[in-house]
Amino acid sequence: MSDTADTQRPTRRLGTLMQLWPFVRPHRALAAGWLVFLAISSSATLVLPMAVRHMIDQGFGHSSLATINATFLGLFGVALVLAFATAARYYCIALLGERSLASLRSQLYAHVIRLDVGFFERSRVGELISRLGTDTEVIQALIGSGISVALRSAVMLLGATAMMVWTSPRLAGLTALVIPAVMLPILVFGRRVQRLSRASQDRLADAAAVANETLNAAPAVKAYAREDIESARYGGAIARALATARQRIGMRSILTATVIVLFFGAIALVLWAGARDVLAGTLDVGVLAQFVIYAFLAAGSLAGLSEVWGDVLRAAGAMERIGELFEERAEITSPAQPALLPRPVEGALRFEHIEFHYPSRPDAPALYDFDLTVRPGETVALVGPSGAGKSTVFALLLRFYDPQTGRITLDGVDLRALALPELRGAIALVPQETVIFGGSAADNIRFGRQDADEHEVREAARAAEANDFISALGKGYDEELGERGVRLSGGQRQRVAIARAILRDAPLLLLDEATSALDAQSEAAIQQALERLEKGRTTLVIAHRLATVQRADRIVVMDGGRIVAQGTHQSLLAEGGLYAELARLQFTA
After folding, report:
1. What pLDDT digit, counting tens, does each position of 249-271 carry?
2. Interatomic CA distance for residues 449 and 454, integer angstroms
3. The dihedral formed by the CA atoms of 406, 410, 416 and 420, expressed in degrees to the nearest 10
4. For 545-568, what is each residue's pLDDT tens digit?
5. 62: closest CA among 74, 71, 50?
6. Is residue 61 domain-resident?
7. Are 144 and 282 part of one and the same domain?
8. Residue 23 falls within a domain, yes or no?
9. pTM (2 decimals)?
10. Are residues 306 and 390 in the same domain?
């Protein structure tokens, strides 16, 4: 099995390059232009040795000035054609590469961003960025220049070989004897270059993943004084990538040197035989010169093919990695015939005997026999110790996952029957860890509803008590907030998230520790904003601080993925149990 697999795997990898065709196909006109100009430039190049032969035999041999003038004028004309065709060929292939890779990157990103949460939990963001960046750049090098060099070399090799046979069949036969010796190292070393190319890309992706993790956690790295440690870790990843790249480069160097030595050795053999024929009077000097030029063109073309072969193998490895991403399929998708929510959406929720295990923890149920009904407009708080399953309830509501048993309904419609945009469009989320993008303050608030105008954005900010600090920024709502909102405090970032939810104006509101990063004064203001926001909406609140959920219509106490009690703050205190213990620990601390 292993021998067969090793034999077939390079073929399969090269076959992955066929996946590039859908991205090249829309630009067929550029590809056609490239082929036309390739034919013109190759023909012009193949005409040059004939001009040299004519110049030697007819010009120098007969000492005709007119013939020399005509020959050199024709030679200059061929050079002009060659220059124009080469420039046009380069323009077509370079633009083809840019356009094709732009389509590839766009479609790859669009595919990856639509994969479900489970995919991102098992993937490293740094590696995904490497595939979007480094791998696509390798393929761009192949399309933008590698394919052009390869096809031009192939055409020139075939053309020069045909002209060698036409010029001197005997010398061409001698040259052909060495071709098997030249092809053998290409086949032997090529497979190793291909394996090392894939390994090199993997090591670069590992290094990118390390850099992404540490740079995104720069405050933590500095707080624990781990700069030297993380630098060493990244340096180790780079060293491993460099070691693999060194092996790949060494193998390609050996391949190139071997091919050049063998082929130019063949040319030396042919020159030796041709020189003997010239001395014997059986071969004209012009014919030998023409043959030698064609032989050098063929040798250069073969050397070009051996050089670009490594790029082809490297691109095949990169395309294999990209193809793996395209093969990924989201497990959570919209149904083929989605149902519609009744209008207006009231926000009635029903969890019917839910059991759910995370894919990464199949033996530990996150929710078990979870049964809950939430009335339209009701505010329900979920409380309990860490790991009780509170965040899992939100994840299932947003359909990041589907439960293994039971079902969840919104206004009587099973969530799995709804299109994902329909479901998530009815939900506004204020997460515990607010995500701030590198755009302006207005853009970050508008993340809640893209079509909101400036007045709506400002009103949402005022309702979230965010208008004052945003207005105090240098450019106000147009101020860039920096990557991950580094220019804002934790409380300010959370107010931006609340402004998003206000702007979204969804019938179902999910608050996950929405005031956890606020000081007492800001929290009081935000609580008033949240009370206004919750009116007329079904609201689920996750809170560890019980003081923030006393105003809830109902408090649901969770432990071990199950509901252990529910009621009002006062009734749960009177009942005793877990809630009363949590309250005692917090209010008497």
Report:
1. 787 777 777 777 776 776 777 77
2. 12
3. -150
4. 766 777 788 888 888 888 888 888
5. 71
6. yes
7. yes
8. yes
9. 0.67
10. no
DSSP label of 20:
G
Note the pLDDT of residue 11.
44
Residue 223's domain comprises 2-327
The token pair at 440 is 């302006």
Q: Which helix (H) or strand (E) holds 319?
A: helix 285-327
Report how far apart, in Å, the C-alpha atoms of 295 and of each of 255, 286, 347, 421 are: 20, 14, 80, 64
Query: CATH number, domain at 257?
Result: 1.20.1560.10
The enclosing domain of 490 has a CATH number of: 3.40.50.300
User: 572-589 as b/e, with b when 16 or more CB fall inside 10 Å?
Assistant: bbeeeebbeebbeeeeee
446 neighbors 457 (Cβ within 8 angstroms): yes
Of the residues 327, 361, 396, the one at which a domain ends: 327
Q: Alpha-carbon distance 427 to 398, whole Å? A: 8
- Is residue 88 in some structural domain? yes
Distance (Å, whole) CA 588 – CA 267: 94
In a domain, 556, yes or no: yes
Fill in the amino acid letter for 367: L
The count of domains in the chain is: 2
Cα–Cα distances in Å, from 290 out to 65, 139, 480?
21, 38, 67
In this model, does residue 216 exceed pLDDT 70? Answer: no
CB atoms within 10 A of CB 156: 23
